[in-house]
Each structure stands twice: as structure tokens, then as C-alpha cells.
């Protein structure tokens, strides 16, 4: 057997066992690597400022934990505590309020009374109670799993930032690509991921602040529900409605019709239509133009927008990182394939 064949077999065998060994961590490692690529400019700035790669990696990891994971952890922890505090008596009280509202709706909603009576007639509150209790347990276990994954992401993110340059150089030497092609692939993936990461943070914060300020005027915890709305806004189409619709219904049940109408109109017009539909693409475009000076590395903001939606739909929460990364990788490979094809055509013409 030729030595190169033996090395290839050993490599394939070791790759298989490495896959088995790290399968539970593949998603976490991938997310950490993509986040490190997204924030490479922050790491470079901190290295030039602190003159120490280790301290820069620690500081950038701390920033990621505070800006990205801490708000979501706060939201999940608070939600878990609130759901676990739900008692059957509280659900029965809510049922009584809903039935009273359906029996005597406001004057301007009288035309809905037959439909409301029909929809409430077959409601099984015992089943809803059991479902709410089981849902509280599910969210609690999800919160614990998220905290564990977030901790692992930060750990791997630190190592990616600290050893990223060495890893990239090693991959460039191993992969059968030219220096120009590997540099192009790394540059375009880094550029797109930077735009995606900062766009996600900016839009979530923007919409969260808008909702938090409005809801605080009605008497609720603006910080908590602003954070909740920011992350809920990442869910395509129905994300915002998952937040403002329960508030509207609850205010109606209390008889605060003006508050309910304000929450609904403000959320639909100001946040969903103006902020999400018109301002969100502008924010992505602005970040795209400011971060990327090279026009060849830029990706259309609508492509980025829909890749985020596709990623969330397909992969869930982490899809907002994976979707744009997969799209950017595919488009860059197409560019490299186009360049290779053109090079082959030029060579054939010269012959």
C-alpha cells in the first residue's frame, strides 16, 4: 500500500472518530466560530488598544456575554419564574375574567359577541391548566439548556478569538485552494457575518426599546418586556404579535379599552409597519455600507434580511446566525467557481 493511501485512510478514520467525539458540541462550536468571525473587527481593535491578545479575547467574550446572552438569559429566567408561579386558582380567575368579558363586551365589539361565545363555549380550562403547567416545565428545561449552551458558546468564542488567526492560517495551508481564493472566502464570510451580527443586535435593541418605552407608560416592566419583545421580533411574521396581543387582551379584560387600543395600534403601526418593515432594511443597509468598503464583498441587504428569516424558520434561534453564514458561503463559492470558469476559458483561448 502506498504511504499516501495509508495516510488518507488514517485521516478518514480519525475524522470519523473526531465527529463522534464532538457531535454534541458541533452546533455550539459552529455558532462560536461564526460569532468570532462576525466580531473580528472588535477583536482587532481591542488587540491594538490593549496590546495583548489574551486580554482582548477575554474582554470581547465579556462584551458578547453582556450584550447578547445576558438579556436573553434574564428574559428566560424571569419567564420561568413567572410561569412556575402560576396556580390553578389564577387560571380560574383568568377564565372568569374572560367569560365576563365575552358575556358583556364593550359596545363597539358587540358584533363579535356570537363568535366569542362560540369560541369560549368548548374551552377546556382543566386541559389549559395542565398544558400551562407542562409548558412551564418545558420552558424551564429550555432555559437551563440555553444557559449551558450560552456558557459553552462563550468558552469556544474565547478560544476562537485567542487562536483564530493561527487556526485560519492552518486551514489555508491544509485546504486545496489558492491563497487568493481562501482569502476571498474568509473576507466575504467575515464581512457578511459582521453585518448580520450588528444588524441583529441593532434591530432587536431598537424594537425592544420602542416597545419597552410604550409598555412602561401603561404600567408594566418596560425593561423585561422590552427585552422580550426584542428577541421575539426575531421570529418572522408573528414575533411581535406574540408580545403585544396578550397585553391587548389582558387590558380589554380589565376594562382598560384605551390602553388596549393604544398597545395594538402602537405595536402594529410604529413597530411592525414603520420600524420592522421600513427602518429595519435601512439599518441593515447602513451597517452594510459603513462596515464594508469593498463593493465586491457587500451582500444585498434584502438577501441578508431574507437569509435571517430563512435561518430562523429552519434552524430556530441559532438560525439567525447560520442562515446568513450558509448564504454567504454559497454565494462566495459561486464567485470562486465563476472565476475558475473564466480562467479556464481564457487559458483555452490562449491555446
TrEMBL record:
Q: Which domain of life is it from?
A: Bacteria
Membrane-protein topology: Multi-pass membrane protein
> What lineage does the source organism belong to?
Bacteria, Pseudomonadati, Campylobacterota, Epsilonproteobacteria, Campylobacterales
Please report which protein family the annotation says this sequence is part of.
Belongs to the autoinducer-2 exporter (AI-2E) (TC 2.A.86) family.
* InterPro entries given in the database record: AI-2E-like (IPR002549)
- Which GO cellular component terms, listed alphabetically, does the Swiss-Prot or TrEMBL entry include? membrane
Q: Main location per UniProt?
A: membrane
**Protein name stated in the entry:** AI-2E family transporter
- Residues in a coiled coil are none
Compartment(s) of residence: Membrane
The signal peptide, as residue positions, is none
TM ranges: 20-42, 54-77, 192-217, 223-249, 261-283, 303-333
- Keywords annotated in UniProt: Membrane, Transmembrane, Transmembrane helix
What the entry lists under Pfam families is as follows: AI-2E_transport (PF01594)
From what organism does this protein derive?
Sulfurimonas aquatica
